[in-house]
Amino acid sequence: MGGNQTQIKFILLGITDSPRAQTPLFVLFLLIYIVSLVGNVGIITLVRVSPSLHTPMYFFLTHFAFIDICYSTVISPRMLADLLSEDKTISFTACMMQFFTFAFFATIECHLLAMMAYDRHVAICQPLLYVTIISSRVCWQLVASSYLFAFLSAIIYTWCVFGGSFCGPNRIDHFFCDAVPVLKLVCSDTHSSEMIFFSFVTINAVGASVVILLSYISIIRTVLRMCSAQSRARAFHTCTSHLMAVSMYFGPAFFMYLQPSSRHGSLDKVASIFYAMVTPMLNPFIYSLRNKEVKGALLKSGRRLFRHWQHARLVPSRT
Predict the structure, then answer these.
(1) From CA 72, how far away is CA 284, in angstroms rounded?
(2) How confident is the model over 144-203, as pLDDT tens digits?
(3) Is 95 exposed, middle or buried (0-12, 13-18, 19+ CB in 10 A)?
(4) Helices H, strands E: what count in the chain?
(5) What is the rounded CA–CA span in Å between residue 190 and residue 166?
(6) Which side of the chain, N or C, has fewer Cβ within a 10 Å radius?
(7) What is the enclosing helix (H) or strand (E) of 93?
(8) How far apart are CA 34 and CA 290, in angstroms?
(9) 91 forms bridges with which residues in the sheet?
């Protein structure tokens, strides 16, 4: 990445070139972004103030919600501004940093989903050893290692995408600086870069998927051996929220990054919108509406706030 590269400016073509569609899309995606922020901040706050949720599962969930906030924020504000602006240029440095931070947070989320699957595996398959295996120290070590590995991966991804020569077209057919549309603008040979990029995506995404798959195979085997139908239903219920989050994240991600470059087309933007914006908005609802513990903690917190509000009204303020 030479010094002359940093002087390059790209043009983000955005979601659509129809002027009539841009304002309605702005309103829609602004609402999605606001709901995503409120929902994920709400999950983090609820876990922090509810002692019943101070468990490894919800420790991972708070980091999951935090990462959802971060990586949707990397994309949404810039996309919203471009929908209302005629000037859609972005500098080489800004484009590179947007991709780096997005790759960083997306990789962490991939690892967190694997950790949450392993947590459910230990809780259901080895309940007597759960406190020992998934201790507070182990939780912090797992999360810290995922941040470190994601940082190193993001550096490699960024080098693969932006390490070539840009000397021709500068129009990125996307609403953010993603790998596939940026690589199309590279003048030099990108075969080796694409292979390295594909290899690390495979290590992260497929590696996490294998952990999730093996965890749930073990969970299913353990649950089917349970004598009580109620116990089986309870065990499966604790996993449904996580499985929904996994399918919504990995489905579009695999579609985007684990297919040949020749097969990429107009559906790429739809897949990107789903995993970069829609999924972070839906995750808080999945983990609150499908989880009895979260709903119980939410009701307790609501009653506590209502009692405080009533007490504040009944007790006259001192002057």
Answers:
(1) 14
(2) 999 999 999 999 999 999 988 887 778 888 889 988 888 888 888 878 888 888 888 888
(3) buried
(4) 12, 3
(5) 11
(6) C
(7) helix 92-125
(8) 21
(9) 9
